[in-house]
Amino acid sequence: MRQKVCWAASAAVALLVTLVVAMPAHAQRSREDGCKSEEIKAAGKASIFGKAAAMRNAIDNWQREVRNRYGERYMVWNRARNKKHECEAASIGTLGKLNQRCTVSAYACAAVQESESIPTGDCWEVQRLLHRAGYLRRDDVDGDCQEKTRRATRRFQRDERLAVTGEINEETWRRLRRRG
After folding, report:
1. 24-60 burial by CB neighbour count: b if 16+ within 10 A, else e?
2. Strand, coil or helix: what is 33?
3. Which H or E run contains 14?
4. Is 90:101 a contact under the CB 8 Å cutoff?
5. What's the rounded Cα separation, in Å, for the pair 73 and 57?
6. At 106, which helix (H) or strand (E)?
7. CA distance 88 to 121
């Protein structure tokens, strides 16, 4: 009887070790860096306005799915791990090549905390917050912080009675987070 118990215990330990070793790196890492261990996939509607618009549609759907599963703090695309995307023509013919549909997949990771400073280089987050506050159109949330984003930031700063610079400083970031 004692040998059976020892054999069962050693088999259980061997199985556990095998599972941990066979576990994908992203699943092992998820406990360390605040990322979820499930890959979220989403497809967007087809768009005749090119790959950028099709990608935006797919990312919007990915964010919606992540928000439904894990909450809003995980839905920032730029913080996701192992991001993959695939775009293809959504119909046939010469005009069909213009009609693009994209699919994205990634592991959702926690966004910055309130106490953290401005995300350097995280244009998507700034644009998303400006969009939610009503200062950018949805189509302008493209991850490219150029003149439209600076104008929207200046309008936001003017309305919030901040120093109008067009740049995201700490006070602008704090108020954007509060409004978004």
Report:
1. eebbebbeeebbbeebbebbbebbeeeebbbbbbbbb
2. helix
3. helix 2-22
4. yes
5. 20
6. strand 100-109
7. 28
Q: Please state the φ and ψ torsions of residue 31, each to the nearest 5 degrees.
A: -75, -30
Spatial CA neighbour of 23 closest among 37, 12, 34: 37
**In contact, 55 and 47? CB cutoff 8 Å:** no
Give the pLDDT of the chain (180 residues) as one tens digit per residue.
555 545 555 555 555 545 544 545 444 444 446 788 899 999 988 888 888 888 889 998 998 898 888 877 787 887 888 899 998 888 877 777 778 899 999 998 877 544 344 555 578 888 888 988 999 888 788 777 788 888 999 999 999 998 888 888 888 888 888 876
What whole-number distance in Å separates Cα of residue 149 and Cα of residue 143? Answer: 10
Residues facing 89 on adjacent strands:
100
